[in-house]
Specification:
Elements lengths: L1 E6 L19 E2 L2 E2 H10 L5 E6 L12 E4 L8 H6 L2 H4 L4 E5 L2 E2 L2 H9 L4 E6 L2 H8 L8 E6 L2 E8 L9 E8 L1 H12 L3 H6 L2 H11 L5 E4 L5 E2 L3 H7 L7
Parallel strand pairs: 1-4, 1-6, 4-5, 8-12
Antiparallel strand pairs: 2-3, 6-11, 7-13, 8-11, 9-10
């Protein structure tokens, strides 16, 4: 099993915190975010890990990981970054992780057990976390609908809580045959869209085309997403990940 960590972006909502430090290296409970991820992966004997860098790439030199670099990180989005790992994804079952999240090694263990071609983790109890992070949770939360463990809708603006059965966490497992379909859709898009599209938007397009089943895996463990400076304040000393 291989893993890819996407750490190309700076974090537009982090303010001065990422002036000198990439978001994935911001400290949570005294340890960089990415090191929390590495611990969870390595506890599951996943040691073949590639990080895709962008902003301040040299900051990651201390990590003994395979590295790829998106030199166009300022003008491109996550799917463009992920495409740099095409040779890995086309051959190996792979776990993909955003660099600004933390999660339990137990969730990785459950993800490994899934036999689906494309599976993403989600938080069915998202409202509790979002209520702590935002004054109005609907300002940030996106639609998420699931039926018979298959994702039916994701990533649109939500007008009511009824449209949200969970929140996507930024953690995926994908097999090569699913990656081929993902890649075919990507290359059918215009060059401008290829540069700007997010992973969530790509998943939404795959669902609309009904070209591949995308399974949802419930997370029942503590986790966190770091989008703002207030997220770090919320989690520090309050979020215990095991």
């Amino acid at each position: 099993m291989k893993s890819i960590i996407l750490a190309a972006g700076r974090g537009s909502r982090m303010g001065e915190l990422t002036m000198d430090t990439p978001k994935g290296l911001l400290a949570l409970n005294g340890k960089p975010l990415i090191e929390h991820q590495l611990k969870a992966l390595k506890k599951n004997k996943i040691n073949d890990i590639t990080i895709i860098t962008g902003y301040k790439k040299n900051s990651f030199d201390y990590l003994s990981l395979n590295k790829l670099h998106n030199k166009y990180w300022e003008t491109t989005n996550m799917v463009y970054t992920l495409m740099l790992a095409d040779k890995i994804l086309a051959k190996e079952e792979t776990i993909i992780s955003y660099a600004d999240i933390i999660y339990s090694h137990k969730l990785i263990g459950e993800l490994l057990k899934s036999d689906s071609d494309f599976v993403l983790t989600y938080d069915p109890n998202w409202l509790d976390l979002w209520s702590k992070r935002f004054i109005s949770p609907l300002e940030d939360a996106e639609t998420f609908k699931i039926q018979d463990n298959l994702i039916k809708e994701i990533g649109s603006r939500a007008d009511s809580l009824d449209e949200i059965q969970g929140q996507y966490m930024g953690l995926i497992k994908i097999k090569p045959n699913a990656w081929i379909q993902f890649k075919e859709l990507y290359f059918s898009l215009s060059n401008d869209i290829q540069q700007k599209i997010s992973i969530t938007e790509m998943i939404a397009k795959l669902i609309t085309l009904n070209s591949i089943e995308i399974k949802g895996l419930k997370n029942s463990y503590p986790w966190g997403e770091v989008d703002t400076a207030s997220d770090l304040k919320l989690y520090n000393n309050n979020l215990i990940i095991t």
